[in-house]
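My main concern about presentation is that the manuscript never shows what a single data entry looks like. An entry of this sort, consisting of the sequence and the corresponding C-alpha cells, reads as follows:
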Amino acid sequence: MTFNPTIHRRKSIRLKGYDYSQAGLYFITVCTHNRVPLFGEIVDGQMQFNESGIVADEEWRKTEHIRSNIVLHEFVIMPNHVHGIIELIGAHCMRPLRPGLKTLINGMLNKKALLNLVRYFVVFEQSRKEDPHTGVISIHTVKKIAAYHQYDAVNAAVASTLRAADIGLSSKVMQNPASYGLPDVTQQPQGDKKAGVVWHTQGCGKSLSMVFYTGKIVLALNNPTIVVITDRNDLDDQLFDTFAACKQLLATEMVLKQAEMIASE
C-alpha cells in the first residue's frame, strides 16, 4: 500500500528503496478499526480471548500452513491489535518439510495406506453433551480416525490371525514387532491357532482398536463370531457402547449378551 500522509496521518517508518517482499524477518502490527477491542480484554494482567480473539489466534497460526514462503515467530494478540514477527523465506524458496508433515505425506498419504485408512479405520460416533446452565442435551456426530499405533497394531493382528487360522488367504506382517528375544509373528507356524497378544496402555484407544480389528477380520474370515471377554461390568458396557456406535464399519447391529446369559446357554 502506498503511503498517503492525508489518510494515514503519520510518518512512514519504512526504509525508502527497500524491497519488503524479499526474504527476511519483519515485525508487524495490525490494529482493529478505530482501535475497538474486538479480541477480548485484559484480566489480572492476562489476555482473555473472546470468540473473535480465538478466531484471530487460530487464523494467525494458520498463516504459515497456507503460505509456503512464511514462517511465524513470536506474536501476541491484544484487545485491539496484534504484534507479530514473520519471516519471509522468498517466493522461490520453499520451506523444507517438517518431520511430521513428511511422515504424513510418505506414510499416511501413500495410496495403499490411505485407502486402508478410509475403508477400515474411520468410524462415526455420537457423543452426548449436556449444557450445565440450561440442562439441554445435544447429540453430536464425531468422526474418528485411527492413530498410527492403532493402524499398525490392527494390521499386524489381522495378518497374524489369518496366519493362525490358515485358511489359504495371503497375509503378511508389514512391520515386525519387538520380540524381546522371543519368536515373533513371522516365525510362527501356519495354522497354530495362536494369533497372539496386543498390549495396550491406559487411554490409548483400545476399544476402538478392537472395533477396527473386528471390522477387518469379519470381512477377511467371512463373518466369524467374535467373543469379547472382560473382567468387569463397566468395561463390558463401555465396549458394547463403542461397538454399537460403530455399526457402519461393522455392517451389523450389535446383539448384547451378558456373561450370565452366555453361561446359561
